[in-house]
């Protein structure tokens, strides 16, 4: 029996199970997948992966290495990206705005150096003074909300 899905399983650096996801059979890497509520805190296993057009709604990716990832057109509303390394990531047309309940995407302490943010929806996302942005990026004009630093 043919299937129109393929299975992707994630484990952390210690081999602990993070989750199993089913993607369209013709998708490349992790594109077009539903990774809503993925919990992969403090890992580097997703570094450089393509999550283009994927659903990462309420994903918990705090302190993870997401450098070089492609999140173009992805839904990251309500995600926890505190302290995440997003250096060089492609976030073009991604949605990091408020979730359906008005909750903010949290990017305090995240590193967006060299990230592509053209068309990225950031209105309501929370940042702090340790969040690093690409040169010339203005979080206030993007509608982001500054919060007190993490303790």
From TrEMBL:
Pfam families: Pentapeptide (PF00805)
InterPro entries: 5peptide_repeat (IPR001646), Pentapeptide-BTB/POZ_domain (IPR051082)
Domain of life of the organism encoding this protein: Bacteria
Protein name (Swiss-Prot/TrEMBL): Pentapeptide repeat-containing protein
């Amino acid at each position: 029996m043919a299937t129109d899905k393929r299975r992707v399983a994630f484990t952390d650096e210690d081999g602990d199970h993070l989750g199993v996801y089913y993607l369209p059979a013709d998708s490349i890497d992790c594109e077009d997948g539903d990774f809503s509520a993925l919990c992969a805190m403090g890992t580097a296993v997703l570094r450089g992966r393509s999550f283009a057009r994927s659903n990462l709604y309420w994903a918990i990716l705090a302190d993870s290495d997401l450098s070089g990832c492609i999140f173009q057109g992805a839904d990251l509303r309500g995600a926890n990206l505190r302290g995440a390394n997003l250096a060089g990531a492609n976030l073009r047309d991604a949605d990091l705005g408020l979730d359906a309940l008005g909750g903010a995407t949290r990017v305090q302490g995240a590193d967006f150096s060299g990230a592509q943010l053209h068309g990225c929806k950031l209105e309501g996302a929370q940042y702090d003074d340790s969040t690093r942005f690409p040169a010339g990026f203005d979080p206030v004009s993007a509608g982001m909300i500054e919060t007190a630093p993490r303790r």
